[in-house]
């Protein structure tokens, strides 16, 4: 009993020590402004037309068109009005990968899997915007 009490006290001391270190560090912002301070943009970054090359093998494709007015919620996914396999041919849009129609157990579905329903969790619009932080990433084809 005494040994477990000693371990509990040591564990609590370690947590408190690390917690005070974290509280002493100052968090800086990438925006260069406080959270509640409005930041006025000098320019609106334009959408890049056409498809951009992927930087690595499993990178989700970037969206080559604006999606600002697209509704994607629990009831509606406007992306599927063009990209679902039943409509892609008539709309001349790329069809979703077959992986989007597999459930967690690998069974094929006739509709998009729930795990792939919210497109923007993986896919983002292409934009000509500067990097927020320094990036030294090299595409895999450059190696």
Summarize the structure.
Residues 1-22 form the signal peptide. The protein is mainly α. Helices cover 22% and strands 0% of the residues.
Helix fraction by DSSP (H/I, runs of at least 4)? 10-25%
Quaternary state of this entry equals single chain
Question: What's the CATH C level of the domain at 63-127?
Answer: Mainly Alpha
The residue-averaged pLDDT reads 82
End-to-end C-alpha gap: 58 Å
Q: Label the overall shape.
A: extended
Q: What is the CATH superfamily of the domain at 63-127?
A: Flavocytochrome C3, Chain A
Order of helices and strands, N to C?
A: HHH
> How many strands, which pairing sense, and closed or not: the largest β-sheet?
none
Radius of gyration, taken over Cα atoms and rounded to an integer in Å: 23 Å
Per the CATH scheme, the topology name of the domain at 63-127 is Flavocytochrome C3, Chain A, domain 2
């Amino acid at each position: 009993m005494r040994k477990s009490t000693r371990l509990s006290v040591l564990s609590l001391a370690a947590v408190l020590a690390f917690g005070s270190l974290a509280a002493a560090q100052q968090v800086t912002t990438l925006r260069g402004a406080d959270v509640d301070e409005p930041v006025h943009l000098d320019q609106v970054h334009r959408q890049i037309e056409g498809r951009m090359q992927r930087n690595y093998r499993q990178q989700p494709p970037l969206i080559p068109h604006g999606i600002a007015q697209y509704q994607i919620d629990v009831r509606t996914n406007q992306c599927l009005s063009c990209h679902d396999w039943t409509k892609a041919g008539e709309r001349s849009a790329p069809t979703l990968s077959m992986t989007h129609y597999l459930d967690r157990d690998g069974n094929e579905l006739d509709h998009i899997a729930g795990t792939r329903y919210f497109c923007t969790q993986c896919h983002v619009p292409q934009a000509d915007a500067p990097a927020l932080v320094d990036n030294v990433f090299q595409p895999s084809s450059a190696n």
